[in-house]
Here is the input.
Amino acid sequence: MSATILVVEDEPGIQEVLKFNLGQHGHEVLIASDAEEAAALLRNALPDLILLDWMLPGQSGIEFARRVRSDHRLKNVPIIMLTARSEERDKIQGLETGADDYITKPFSPRELMARIKAVLRRRAPQMTEDVVEIAGLRLDPVAHRVFGHQKPLDLGPTEFRLLHFMMTHPERVYSRSQLLDHVWGDHVFVEERTVDVHIRRLRSALEPSGHDALIQTVRGSGYRLSATPA
Ligand code: CA
Here is the structure.
């Protein structure tokens, strides 16, 4: 599981440790020293997770978490708060602000990695390597293969990511811009009609086993993967 992780931390020593450890686990790391730098990075790239220090110069981590949660484009990005505070009251405040988890300094890299994995598994199941199966359609992220009723189907890389996201988030409608954020990583440089092009390709790739019927158009809203006919 490799993710893009934004680290917001002002202490250079901890920045280094995090960068090293996350890099060793195959994650791509973006570093910001304060909330404003983080906000600037977030305008260009949407990370899979934010590791956010509580005590930052300028806007605090808690205030920044609140800001992320109130931003339509960023609100679903998982946040793990890093803090020297270990009081229960602070932990509750952190979680109420919208953090997904909380880790107290000093922490072991092993503990941090386990928590990152748990949060990604919960919040972004398409980042994990679990096989998903819906109505006879099976997607194997490790082998990078898709089978419709046991027969291999041929998908391009973007169609594969799109299908993986939709299979791990079934029965929910996603707008074109939400799909761009989740599947392409960001909506800044890609036009929304690109989504329609790849949906069309995905449907034709799924046609041999009849699974194209799972990909439903929801008029005026976007697309949904559902095992129940529209
Ligand atoms: Ca700090």
Observations:
- The CA atoms of residues 1 and 128 lie 6 Å apart.
- The domain at 132-225 is CATH 1.10.10.10 (Arc Repressor Mutant, subunit A).
- Residues 10-11, 53, 55-56 surround calcium ion (CB under 6 Å).
- Residues 109-123 form the longest helix (15 residues).
